[in-house]
Amino acid sequence: MSEDDARPDDGAEESAGEQRQRKIIHVDMDAFFASVEQRDNPELRGKPVAVGGSSGRGVVAAASYEARKFGVKSAMPSVTAKRLCPDLIFVKSRFDAYREASEQIRTIFRHHTDLVEPLSLDEAYLDVTENKLGIAAATQVAQMIRQEIRAKTQLTASAGVSYNKFLAKLASDQNKPDGMCVIRPGEGAAFVQTLPIRRFHGVGPRGEEKMARLGIATGADLAAKDRAWLAQHFGSFGEYLYRAARGIDERPVRVNRIRKSIGGERTFSADRHEAEELRTTLDEIVEIVWERIERAQARGRTVTLKLKYNDFQLMTRARSLPRNVDGKVEFAALGHEILESLLPLPKPIRLMGLTLSNLERDGDEEALRRDGKTGQLSLL
Question: Into which CATH architecture does domain 258-369 fall?
Answer without folding.
Answer: 2-Layer Sandwich (3.30)
